[in-house]
Design brief:
Blueprint lengths: L13 H24 L10 H30 L7 H25 L2 H28 L5 H29 L6 H33 L6 H24 L8 H24 L8 H25 L1 H4 L4 H37 L15 H23 L4 H41 L1
Helix pairs in contact: 1-2, 1-3, 1-13, 2-3, 2-4, 2-11, 3-4, 4-5, 5-6, 6-7, 6-8, 6-11, 7-8, 8-9, 9-11, 11-12, 11-13, 12-13
């Protein structure tokens, strides 16, 4: 049973918009950093450029957009009462932004104290955010797999945060007796699998059938995916931490199960899209398809790297997987959803004001279709260039610039949607004032 949407519970439009408008700015910075470092950035996953770019994408682009979406999604889908959403947004948003700047600066400048400052800032910001989200999701009367998986995703973010703070403190204090690589791998696994992918899975149970007019996900799959993914993450991470990274015979099998689950989810989503009731494809649909195809390529690449260690141990193998996961899977889904969420929020909040003489534009007029498709093509080109640059590094600067340009175009499109909202809001309020006078 799907939860009943409670649009009256939606927070003020400024709450999610501050997160949405900030996110692409750090994508621009990430692309410029990559272009600045050039070929040196893709030497390995441990280069300063690669680490800075990765964390700018993960802890600001992705985290900003996902936090803003959750504040909106949990209120509407779960019918939950978000405690003081304006205050939460006013505290969490600037702190996440500051933490991202501190963390990226720590990697670029190699100043240990910045890691400690970033850890403190993220602890405050996400501590508040997680507390508010947990209380809202635990106290909501709504039921269904979407709510259940959102709770698991919030737990995944908590574990990712605790591991990240631990790593930042270790780097800030420059401890040398700590199993750093083991904690990094567990941190990455929970961040991508337990938080990001879990959230995408939970959201997709509702938005893919609703927005893309597909059949619902099979009931057995909606139950097996989150449970299996959680079990894999717990078994794999506990074994890795307990043995300090020493490989066990069954560890590879557990990892393969996790990859199969991710591939099953991607395949099921593509299968549902192929059975959609409306044959026209909008940009959100196309972005989801890019994301699911990227996820399938990620899974196949991971299995190949596991089967052929000489490939998997290559310094750039992890970079290949990182590009597929971040710009390929998660940014594609985030951008596609922003193109659906922002026009809908504009329309919803304009409808709430008062009945104007001229109705507000429909959702398709909020962001021009040609602008969205042009930006999507540039984003796809950036993904292709980034993947090519991993193996032929002279393309790195161009890849960084194209990625930055795609983020600039995204920001321009989102700003345009906000301008349309503000223009019609002012016209509606002026019309109401004239009518009252």
């Amino acid at each position: 049973m799907q939860p009943v949407l409670s649009f009256e519970q939606a927070p003020p439009i400024s709450v999610p918009y501050r997160f949405f408008l900030t996110a692409p700015l750090f994508g621009i910075v990430a692309g410029l950093i990559l272009a600045w470092y050039g070929e040196d950035a893709f030497v390995s996953r441990w280069s300063s450029g690669a680490l800075a770019m990765t964390h700018l994408i993960v802890v600001d682009f992705m985290l900003q957009a996902m936090c803003g979406s959750l504040l909106q999604f949990v209120a509407v889908v779960a019918g939950a009462n978000i405690w003081r959403p304006r205050l939460v947004a006013a505290v969490v948003h600037p702190l996440i932004t500051a933490g991202a700047v501190l963390l990226a600066s720590a990697f670029v400048l190699e100043i240990p104290v910045l890691f400690l400052l970033a850890a403190s800032v993220f602890a405050i910001a996400l501590g508040l955010f997680l507390t508010v989200m947990a209380l809202a999701l635990l106290n909501t009367p709504a039921r269904g797999m979407t709510i259940h998986v959102l709770r698991l995703a919030v737990m995944g973010l908590l574990i990712t945060l605790l591991l990240g703070i631990t790593l930042a403190v270790v780097l800030g204090t420059q401890r040398t007796d700590f199993p750093l690589l083991v904690f990094v791998n567990v941190h990455v696994a929970w961040g991508l699998g337990g938080w990001a992918l879990m959230l995408v899975i939970g959201v997709s149970y509702l938005v893919v059938p609703m927005f893309q007019l597909t059949p619902s996900y099979p009931v057995w799959l909606t139950r097996a995916l989150p449970a299996g993914l959680l079990a894999v993450l717990m078994l794999w991470s506990m074994q890795l931490l307990a043995t300090h990274g020493e490989a066990q015979n069954w560890q590879s099998g557990v990892s393969i199960i996790g990859m199969v689950l991710a591939g099953l989810y991607a395949g099921a989503t593509l299968w549902l899209q192929a059975r959609r009731r409306r044959r026209l494809t909008d940009v959100t649909f196309a972005y989801w398809r890019i994301a699911m195809l990227s996820l399938l390529v990620y899974v196949c690449s991971w299995i190949i790297f596991e089967a052929f260690p000489q490939l998997g141990n290559h310094p750039r193998a992890a970079l290949w997987l990182g590009v597929l996961a971040l710009p390929g899977v998660f940014l594609s889904i985030i951008i596609g959803m922003l193109y659906k969420i922002m026009p809908f929020l504009n329309w919803l909040h304009l409808q709430r004001l008062c009945d104007p003489k001229a109705p507000p534009p429909n959702m398709k007029q909020m962001i021009p279709e040609a602008a969205m498709r042009g930006q999507m093509r540039l984003h796809l080109g950036a993904i292709v260039l980034l993947l090519a640059a991993i193996w032929w590094t002279p393309l790195t600067t161009l890849a960084g610039l194209v990625f930055a340009a795609a983020c600039v175009w995204l920001e321009w499109n989102l700003i345009g949607a906000v301008r349309i909202y503000e223009n019609f809001r002012d016209r509606i309020l002026a019309s109401c004032a004239d009518h009252e006078s």
